[in-house]
Write a structure and sequence with these properties.
The complex is a heterodimer.
Chain A lengths: L6 H15 L19 H15 L5 H4 L5 H12 L1
Helix pairs in contact in A: 1-2, 1-4
Chain B lengths: L4 E10 L2 E2 L1 H9 L17 H4 L2 H5 L3 H16 L13 E6 L5 H14 L8 H5 L3 H10 L5 E4 L5 H15 L4 E8 L4 H9 L24 E9 H6 L6 E10 L12 H13 L7 E5 L6 H15 L1 H6 L2 E2 L2 H4 L6 H14 L2 E2 L22 E2 L7 E9 L3 E9 L1
Helix pairs in contact in B: 1-15, 4-7, 8-15, 11-12
The chains are: A mainly alpha, B alpha/beta.
Chain lengths: ~80, ~400
Amino acid sequence: MAATATREEIEQRVFQALEEFGAEPDQIGPDAEFEALDVDSLDLVELAQIVEDDYGVQLKGEDMEGITTVRQAVDLVMSKLG
Amino acid sequence: MTRRVVITGVGAVTPLGVGARTLHERWTAGVSGIEDGFGRASEFEPKEHLSVKEVRRSDRYTQFALAAAKEALEDAGWEDGPPGDPERAACVIGTGIGGIGTLENQHIILREQGAERISPLSIPLLMANAASGVVAMKHDLRGQSFGTVSACAAGAHAIGMAERLIRHGDADCVVTGGSEAAITPLATAAFGRMDALSDSGISRPFDLRRDGFVMGEGAGVLVLEEEEAAKERGARILGVLRGYAATSDAFHLTAPEPNGRGAAKAIELALEDAELSPEDVIYVNAHGTSTPLNDRAETQALKSALGGERANQIPVSSTKSAIGHLLGAAGAVESIATLLALRDRIAPPTLNYEEQEEGLDLDYVPREARPLANGDTPAIGISNAFGFGGHNAVLVLEAT
């Protein structure tokens, strides 16, 4: 599946995860900051697990460092899918 | 001058429903919250009380505590945190086991899917201090916060510690109580293997046919405040926490000392702490687990601490007859039940009590509630909580 995932699909999956984490749906978007969504480091570890389950992409702690927006997270997954 | 501790708010989640007054009203009416041998908090729907994030970030036991705390704080008239300096507000919430449901589920994931799949939330959810930490965080309680762990006495120990914090001057108000959600496969099987659970699935404390306790779940939370501060802010005062004491049996890992030695001492010391005598006590909310050993030892303890004659005159009933045993939440839920019973001047019943055992001859208020007659004297009662490990904690409450 990993090879065929589009940016839109990954973005939608991330949006869905953020909503499950308790972020307000109307605040979720590509440029939303995790801090503003009340998404913290524990949530990001879970997000990494979800991405690994769904797309086979392994994200390590250091990969997530400096990731502060939804767009950056999606970019990171896309780059790993290469 | 001694600082006195008053109760300004109560909240509960129990097998009889959500709400402290729901617990009181239904128990008094003789309703049982036990179904199929378990006292589940089946009316509790987490999303009705908590945000999506709160639900995700808390074990069921913490969810109960959050909901009970919310009710208690509203009941106390608190708005957006504690009255006064938040650094003078503490939070002490006990539990028997903590987030055992999370522990069991994560262990299944570990075995079946491996260490990489374990949730990063595992530890913060399962730790036995999660309830106190999360409640403190939610309500901006910046003084001391910690959990108490003493099995089925944990809720009472928490309230006792909270009372001491205020009396000693370490805090001006404390959100305190107990919470438990241990109706899980492992905990149920383990209690069963100890032969502690009722085979019949009936909770009938003090009855000849009692055959063990029925597991329950839920939470009880109280708001305690220093009396002068509470009066100054115009708080409605539900009652006074007059006294507290705790002892240890130092006898056996699970069995109570057969003569109730440690329990009796705790009752005596609690009355002494309250500067009261057995003559002042008009109601006893017993630990009354429905196990053969507890109910016999507790009856002995009451006779020994109150005197045989006085013990026979005081109505003694067990909340566990209606909701089962809420373990670390029991002492807190039952102290709330005691307070509301005293306020209404009524002794709620020991449900299912029918057959007397020789030597168990106190007035157990069988099956139906009964008015408490106390004339013009204050309505004072005691609430007992005893735990595996030989822990005994006793609270003395006065309704206002």
